[in-house]
Amino acid sequence: MNFSGGDILKFKDFIESVSKKLKHVYLLTGEENFYIDKAREEILSRLEVKREDLQIIDCDEKPSIGEIISTVDSAPFFNPLNVVLIKNADVLFGAESKSERLPEVLRDMQETNFVIFTAKSADKRRKLYKIISEVGDILEAVPLRSWEIDDFLNEKLKAVEKKMYGEARRYFAERVGLLPEISLRCLDNELEKISLAVKGNEITAADLQRVMTAPPEVSNFALPDAVDAKKIKKAVYILRTQMRDMKNMPLVLTVLVNHVRRLLRAKFFIKQGITGKRLGEPLEMNPFIAQKIGTAAASYSTELLETSLVELADADYKLKTGRAGVEILERIVIKLCRR
Q1: In this structure, is the dihedral angle defined by the CA atoms of residues 276, 282, 288 and 289, taken in order, positive or negative?
Q2: 25-29 and 137-140: which strand pairing?
Q3: What global pTM score does this model have?
Q4: Under DSSP, is residue 313 helix (H, G, I), strand (E, B) or coil?
């Protein structure tokens, strides 16, 4: 085993670092629990430590600093390594942390000792954080954006021994691209389910349409698609179907507002000479979807889109106060279709 320190890394680079050289100290921090869990399991696997031999301290149970230091700094008794997992360690990396001893212990870890901290957030100005960045590795587990999904998708396809090409990738990108935020755990489970349902080694667009569960956020991509295609009857039908339950109203409004804003932004960047898949970066979207948005944007006038945004804001207020029904959105959708 090779040991050295240290860096602040995104998930892919973090896993690569763990596979090359093990560090004595790790901090796994951020909002994406899927990455934190994967990173923790990769470290434990590389250390070849069994779950029953892992020492766990949960900071939510308010252990003393002395207890934490003693556990981290103790020599192993019945095992070759002393591996400690310190969960929910936000307080150790916040303003409340006043320990001077713990950073020194981490700086001079015994060769047999390893510690993994997990925290939702960690103050980079704190001495403890700076020490770990010097002697260990820090994972910043930030949620993925839809346009960053390719690495995750490729790794998962490799793990399930499946392929996905052209139309299937575009379909997958469209479904994921309209999510306000991505749950990698849900996507992981979804791809696992799809891989089990597909007999061959290739997942097609038809397979995705047949098997892929459509959460509410994703199923709404049908409405902006119908509007862009100027299909009035289809757009109104979809709108009425989605608005049968008024609990869906905030989500439907969000989909429409976000779509109109994307069209406006696309028109702005197209005027700057940015077209096609290159719209992906300024729009912060998957390039496939950005290209589609750019193509649709050309058929709208800026005035219509700006007016529609104002009308959608008014519709939001009237729907929430009970002063209007679904017909107020129908009028906006029809006007957009008739452009």
Answers
A1: negative
A2: parallel
A3: 0.63
A4: helix
